[in-house]
# Entry
Amino acid sequence: MLVKVTKDEGITKVASPIVSEDQIRIFNQPNDSFFPDTFQKTRKLSGIVKHQMKTAFRVLLLFFSATSIVWSQAGSGNSAFTFGEELQFEVSYGWLNLAEARLQIARRAVHEQSRPHFKIDAYGKTKGAATIFGKVNDNWGTHVDTSTLLPSLSYRNIEEGKYRKNEKVFFDQPNRKAKMELYDRDNRTVKDSKEFKLPGNVQDLVSGFYYLRSMDLTNLKKGQAVLITGFFDKEIYNLKLIYEGTEQIQTSLGLVDTYIFSPQVPKNKLFRGDYPVKVWVTKDQNKIPVKIKANLFIGSLNIDISSAKGLRNN
# Structure
């Protein structure tokens, strides 16, 4: 079967009606001024930074969700997280605080198909001066079976400037099916509905991160390359991940030992270097991300943990 391969912003895209076994992921993502030149340059720079903030966040989630199935085909039981966990992050560019992000597990279970599930939400929004150039207020969420750690429902509610997107994906894991519903701007009426066949058990964009946290990462070897394939917005994405070893770093939580990962991003106009994004994950039973750094052609974008509450392991 013929496939079409294209490249966009350093990520290889393969458009094909068939997804390879065990690799699919349904992720169903001037006016007047006293200083007009400065204003224009600042606005352009802010636009670049906002774009890369969203790109880095989505690449991070894709990285977590796709690698979970590569490193382990069977769940090892969850001892890393529980109800009520909340992780807060600050997003900065140099001295400018751009945004804040939050990963939150609801305090109580929700039920899907009469089974208890974790309700997990990822929030991201601009703040302070960054809102002058357009507000970003995104919510990506999932309902994850507490036993299998597989999603039964995923959703995303996107507010980026005037742009809106509200979407739900209902997973029928036993029957290898998924139904996507696209809602109107007010998130009330279904505008479009499509069904997909799945090759097997799948994760969504948020649930994959938490599935990874249940895995045993102690046997990873420095320099190990992992090919990641995901399905997002009806296209296949291939990314190459490199495990770079461990490092002890200072965070708002104190001095912590971490695993380091780097997705390979081909050269483009926004990122600098072959491995411009690095992710630090705690080398303990919780396995929480504490730092993300993306090297841009002008400066660096940083996402740093600011607080962590309700951790399962203290």
About this structure: The chain has one domain: 23-72+79-309. Residues 23-72+79-309 form one domain.
